[in-house]
Write a structure and sequence with these properties.
It comes from hydrothermal vent metagenome. It is a multi-pass membrane protein. Keywords: Membrane, Transmembrane, Transmembrane helix. The chain crosses the membrane at residues 45-66, 73-91, 97-114. This is DoxX family protein. By secondary structure, the chain is mainly α. It has one domain. It is 73% helix and 0% strand. It contains 5 helices and no strands. Helix 1 (3-26) runs antiparallel to helix 3, helix 1 (3-26) packs across helix 5 (98-113) and helix 4 (71-91) runs antiparallel to helix 5. It is globular and about 45 Å long. The two termini are 27 Å apart.
């Protein structure tokens, strides 16, 4: 893929992560309507401070992608959040699945972008 396209996608993912990560602390975006089950699950994540950890990982990953430092490592760590966000929306909140799909697709693109960084990890 063209390096300029990858750079644009990297910045797009970084901005998305910074906005959604900061929103978990500052609450500047309106909360979408959720089902009772999704709200209960989301409330459990908030009460156990799991969402605080998710927000920190999103913000740190966004900064890593912007500065292109440790971005390969943070893209791997972000994959767990991407998959869990998609599974949450698939099972409990399908109406708001768009950003979760975008997050997963952009994360996969970043993993592919940094594939050379993972060669030593994947040696058999």
């Amino acid at each position: 893929m063209n390096s300029k396209v990858l750079m644009v996608l990297r910045f797009l993912l970084a901005i998305m992560l910074l906005v959604f990560g900061a929103n978990k602390f500052l609450h500047f975006l309106p909360q979408p309507e959720m089902s009772a089950d999704a709200g209960a699950f989301f409330g459990g994540l908030m009460s156990t401070k799991t969402l605080t950890l998710v927000a920190v990982v999103e913000i740190v990953t966004g900064l890593a992608l912007i500065f292109n430092k440790y971005a390969a490592l943070m893209s791997i760590i972000l994959m767990s959040i991407s998959v869990n966000a998609l599974l949450f929306h698939l099972s409990l909140d399908t109406a708001n699945i768009g950003p979760a799909i975008a997050l997963l697709v952009l994360n996969i693109v970043m993993l592919y972008n940094y594939k050379d960084s993972y060669k030593d990890l994947l040696k058999g």
